[in-house]
Structures are given as C-alpha cells and as structure tokens.
Amino acid sequence: MSITGNYDHYHRSGSTGSGGPDRPERCVCCVRTMKWFPVLFIVSVIGWSYYAFVVQLSFFTVTSVVQRILFLLFYHLILVMFLWSYYQTVFTDIGRVPSRFRVPRSELDRLLRATSEEEQKQILEAFAKELPIVTRTLNASVRFCEKCRLIKPDRAHHCSVCGVCVLKLDHHCPWVNNCINFTNYKYFILFLGYALLYCLYIAFTTVMYMEMIWSGKVDGRFHILFLFFVSLMFAISLVSLFGYHCYLVLLNRTTLESFRTPIFRYGGPDKNGFSLGKLNNFQEVFGDDRKLWFVPVYTSVGDGVCYPVRCFDEDAESLLSGELANNHHSSRHSQQQRNGQHRVGGRHNDYSDVHQYRNGAVRNKPIVHRVNDDDEDDDEDEENVFETTVFSHSANLLH
C-alpha cells in the first residue's frame, strides 16, 4: 500500500482528482460537452417518438375519438413519470464524502515519512478509529483513496469520470451523464421502469395497426413502423437491465459489490453483508411511505455514509486466531443468518435497530477483525468494473 510517490505529486500540483489545473480549459470544455451527447440522443429519441405516437398514430391513424383520448391520456401519464424520473437521475447531485473523512495535511505528511506499509496502515487506522466504517481492503487496511486523500466510507468508491469519491457508487452511466449512487439510485430504478413501461405501451398500441400500416392504407407509415421496432428494441434491452437492478435492490447490493465482494472488519468477505431481508432492502432505497415508492421524489433511508449490516458474533473476537476463530464465526454466522438477526453499530437486534437507523439514531461503530494481506483495494480495478458494466449496458441499448 505504498502511497509516497502519489503524494509527492499531490504536494507539487495540488490536484485532488483527474484533470488537474495544467489541462487546457478548452479541452476540458470539449470533454464536458461530449458527455452530454448520449443524453441529447435519448431526448431526441423521446421527442421523435412523441411526434410519431401523438401526431402520426393518434391523430392521423386512430379513427375512434374515445380510443384516441384513452391512447393520449395513458401515454402522457407514462411520459410525465418517465421524463420526471430521467430528469431527477440526470440532475441530482452526486453524494460526496463528508469532510470529516478527509485526511488532514499533518497526517498526510506522516504518511510520507512512514518507512513501511505497515506504518502507513497504522496511521490510517488511528485516524479512522472514530469514523463509522466497517469495511476493509483485502489486506485488512482502511479503504483509502489516494486521489481524493480521504478515508472511503462504507460502499463509497472513486469515480474516474467525475474525479471524486461517491457515496454508495453503483456505476457511472453515460446515458444520464451522472454517477448512479446513493442520492439518485431510486430515480434511476424508476427511470428504467418507466422507460420500459413507455416502450411496451407504444409497442402494444401500435401493433394493432400494423396490418393497415403495412398495406399502405394510412399515411405516415414509416414513422409508425419505425416507432414500433425502436420501442420493441429498447424494451428488450431494458427488460434485462431493469430486472438486474431490481435483483440488486432486493439483495441490497450495488453493481460494484456484485463484482467485488465487500470485506468487513468483522466477518471477512460477504456479498450479503448489507442485506437486511428483501422488504428492508427495498425500503432502504424506496423509503417507508408506500404512497411515494413509485414517485420520483427523494425517500431513500439513511445518509449514504452509515449502513446497517448483518449480525456477527463479537465473542469470536476474544478467540486467539486461526482456524478456531474462523470455524466458530462460520457456525455462528450461519445460525444467525437462519434466525434473521442483523447488527447495527455492533448490537444484536432482530431488525429493531434497522428502524432506528432509518430515523438517524444508530450509527455503525468500528470493530476489529483480522483478514489476510494478499491484496488491497484498488481504485483502478473498481473503475474498470463499473466502466465495463456501463459499456455492456450501452451496447445492449444500441443493439
């Protein structure tokens, strides 16, 4: 975990993210502008589909007045929810790490003077002992971002596109030009859901007129035919993407965590470490008010920094080490998992603490656990994971 070379660069340039002050301003503006192209493409497709459905289909093709009114009524209801969700996903600010997680200059200087990686780990551990974090790297060290010079909160990761650490980062999505993270994850799920509903509605309402359009009995058949196939193509792509993220919501897992298992100070690697049961997992994203579950307004639970986690047996901490501790924890963890117990802030309580967490009354406290020193958390690997995921989703949408 040697970080000396990187901090020499920080001290010289004063940059904390990608694209420091030496980059030409014109180049930065061009890059920022290009990032909006996918969003403009989506907006253009929606605008064209509005013309094709409202004008070409509803007014020029549908002859029944009642049917036309029903078509337009349901279409505009779905469209409003679709655009509202998309707007919220695009323009909601990312969740930034609070300032208390930033390592002060004095501690950075100590890190520079450290003569070994073990000493660096101890310095970071001492600084992070009062922070509400329970996850660690593979070598049992504190998760530290060398670019932002801060301790990463649980589930936070560095985004190479935005150049900052983001709370509960899922991935960076080029189609919304924003990070999908704690602050807009609900909006993103609703955006996918309403986009799928929008495409299915258009496909099912146009398919009944395909015979008339194909035979040339109505004008504007190109727009309506193309509308049907485009909506069907996007619907097929959205089914897999929407279904996958619904699956992640029910498991309380991010895309990054599905590729890289989070490692806990106490309990080791556990993909389901943040899972509280399907209903609680769902409510952590969508909130407790059922009337607002499918409305794109903020109702998510928590602050993006502290999360309730599965219950582990803290008595195992007093055991010496080695196989005995591992076997003891494994058996206890299996029993507690069957009993549905979870831990928030190190306390055992069958979901009662989860409700306190929702009210902001409970915070996780650091606990101690030994894990192996084979590897360490690497920002570049994390970036590659979500970039690969995003581009695969993009390819699905385009093809």
Question: How is this structure best described in words?
Answer:
The model is unreliable at 10-21, 313-356 and 359-399 (pLDDT under 50). Among the domains are: 28-94 and 175-292, no CATH class; 99-152, no CATH class. The protein is built from 14 helices and twelve strands. It has helices at 4-13, 25-34, 37-59, 65-91, 105-113, 117-128, 185-207, 210-214, 221-251, 255-259, 278-286, 322-339, 352-358, 379-398, and strands spanning 135-136, 144-145, 150-151, 157-159, 164-166, 171-173, 178-180, 263-264, 268-269, 309-310, 342-344, 347-349. A hairpin with a 4-residue loop joins strand 2 (144-145) and strand 3 (150-151). Helix 3 packs across helix 9, helix 4 runs antiparallel to helix 7 (185-207) and helix 9 (221-251) runs antiparallel to helix 14. It is elongated and about 80 Å long. The longest helix has 31 residues, at 221-251. The protein starts with a helix and ends with a helix. The chain is mainly alpha-helical and 399 residues long. Helices cover 52% and strands 8% of the residues. The strands form five sheets. Strands 1-8-9 form a three-stranded antiparallel sheet, with no helix packed on it. A three-stranded antiparallel sheet has the order 10-11-12, with helices on one face. A two-stranded antiparallel ribbon has the order 2-3.
